[in-house]
Each structure stands twice: as C-alpha cells, then as structure tokens.
Amino acid sequence: MTDNDTIFALSSGAGTAGVAVIRLSGPRSIFALSELAGGKVPAPRTAALRTLKAPSTGERLDRALVLVFNSPASFTGEDVVELHVHGGRAVVEGLLHALSTIQDLRPAEAGEFSRRAFDNQKLDLTEAEGLNDLIHAQTAAQREQALRQMDGELRSLYQGWRRDLLGHLAHLEADIDFPDEDLPEGVSGSVKPNILSLKLNITQHIENSRRGRMLRDGFRITLLGEPNAGKSTLLNALAQADVAIVSDEAGTTRDAIEVQLDLSGYPVRLVDTAGVRDSEGVIEQEGVKRALDKARDADLTLVLLRADTWPAIPEVIRPWIDETTLVIVTQIDRLPDVPVFHVEHLSGVTPMRVTPVSAKTGDGLDSLFEAILCVVGERMALREAPAFTRLRHQTALEEAVDHLDRFQQNAGIDAVLAAEDVRMAVRAIGRITGQVGVEDMLDIVFSDFCIGK
Q: Full-prediction pTM beyond 0.70?
C-alpha cells in the first residue's frame, strides 16, 4: 500500500437505490475508466453516458454517467473519476469486481478519500471533521453546524490565534537575541498583555463550546422521579411511540431507556430511568445508582412529582431540584379538581419551572414541549462564534492555555522559558488543524469516516 495507489469505493449508501456512485482516486483512475468504457473517456468535468464493460471478459455491466476531475482540481487533489451507475446490487458488485481486476487498483479504506484530501491540502482537520459530521447529521442544527465547520470557521479562528502568537513570539525572541538593541518593549510592554488577552479568548471559547458537542452528540434530558411517577408514560408521550413498558407495578423500569428525538431541528437524547427510592434489593439499588448517574451527566433534568402527593418532595429527590431543573407534575387527570401548581409551593427548593401534565389525556404536553424547547434552544443555538465538536480540540486548547499560564509566570523572569511556553502553545493549536506534526492522530481522525469518503 502506497500513497500512489489508485483507490475505489462505493461512495453512496449501500443497498438498492435508483443511483449509486462509485468513486476512484489516484494516478490510474482515468486509465481504469478507459478500460471500462472502451477508451471513450469524456472531457474533464463533463458528464457523459457510457457503456461500461468488464475489461477481462467484455461482459456488459451498465450504462452510466461518468465524470472525470483532473488533478489538482478535485476533492482529493488527485485524478478522480465518478461512476454514476444504477443502484442495483448486481450492477454495483459487478463494477467493484471489475475494478479490482485492473492492475494497481485497490479498495479504499475508511476515510481514505478525505485523508488524501488532507494530505494534498484540500482540507484541514477541522474541515474534514465537519465533513464527517455533515454525513452523519440527523437534524437541521447538526447540518448547519457541520456546514459552518466545513466552511472553515474553526480553521480561521485557530489560525488567527496561531498567527497572533507567532507574531508575539517573534518579539520575545528578538528580546533574547538582541538584548542590547533599542527594540520595542517586548515582554515588559505590549506583548505580555496581548498574549494574556488571547489566553482569555481561548479560555472563553473552551467554556462556550459545550453547545458544539451537544449539537453533535445530542442534548441529554433525563427523567427522574420515584417509582410510578409516570416517567415511562411521559417518555412514550414525548417520543410519540411505545418505547418503554408502562405498568402500575412499581419498579417496572430497571435500567435506563434512551430515545433520540429531533426537537425543532435540535438533536435530543431523552432518557427514562429507574424509579428513585430507598431499597434493599441489589438490582433495584443498581437501577437507582444508574438513574442518578444519568441525572448527574444530563444537560437538563426533568423531575417528576405525582399530582396526588403535591407539593411533597421525596427526600431522595429533593437534592436534584434546583434552578436548572424542570419539575413536571404528573397524572393530573386523576384529580377531580386540578389545583394551581406554583414554584413557591415547593418549600426549600426553587426549580426553573413547574409544568402540570397528563400523559394519558395530553393536557399540558404542549406547554412541556415549549418549556423544553426554550431551554434546548437557548443552550444549543448557533452563535456568531464557531463552536468545536471534538474532545481533541478541547484537549489541545487546554494544553495551549496551560503553556500560556506558564508564560505568565516566566515573563519578566526568564525570557527563554517564556518564549518556549509561547512556542509550545503555538504547536498545541497547530495540531488541531494539522499544521504541525499530527501523524499519530490522523488514523484516529479519519477512521471514523465511512468507506468511500
């Protein structure tokens, strides 16, 4: 296997379809098309109808639209050929087999087309990750964030920080190399405040980018309450499907049940948990532990309290109610007269909001949806500043901040160490986009891609 191999793969989805796209990239791509099409290769960037035959047997495989993209004006920067064929299994398998018989062609590995685009400077790592996110996007918000990342918003932000640090580093090194020269003030003047201001910007970016990861992975909402509080019934009502077993028997739910929803374009992961109560049963204790773990990791917790026990709060539930919690008063259909439910009725705790509902009759569900959407939209809405979606971005940026913290300690004391701290911060940021040695992480980044991309 070498960088000069010509690779091929089905780039569209597997399974029967009206059209399937097979992509080739590498120096033998156009030769391979010539072999399939009997020498009739169309002009670059022009779609043409061709009959494709197996080179070794002459067996007719399909009539297809074919396109040629010459290097370097292609996705990978290499010669690229696309075969838009009928999406039947026999057609696709016949063409893939025919390509495998051509010398110096081989099937592509996962993410190899995008890896070649990176190697040929057609994409940086943040754009490649944005492309992968776009392929896997399931909601409008995920799609928009991925497109923004593909447009280079993160790259521009990180490259700007890196460029500014390199400029400041030049001043620091000038102080070291020419200590007796009449140079601008360097560390003792404008350079140090500028670097510390940049460090503050990076720190704020880290703190504000939780929404980026939530958009990519889904906003986690956990339902928490005592047994028979109506968690599973409410989960089914919100999901509009019977995804959880509902029973009057306490403790029916023993483990977390997760449902993925598209809530007005935002990805939401709704989690039903075991009823929380004091128990001596080993299995139920484990269920309660998992329920509390889910609540601890949640972006939003819905605490369910039964209407017939309102406004009493079980002691095991009380610690989980605060100003970030939505309290749901359930089973209001069981009351002959529905009382007014106010936050003030819950002594000792102050939730964000109290919403009465009946999952059985549907009363209050619209208000609950609005309340949840308000929280989700506020925390996940795309803002002017781009947000990262990968843990590796956060790790590299936190490393850069650590180096700049050390710069702050060394500036004015040891100019050499101060300059080295800035240099290491530059390297940490450069790893995010792939501007410095990142060979050890490339396999990890691109292995998450599908075959054909």
A: no
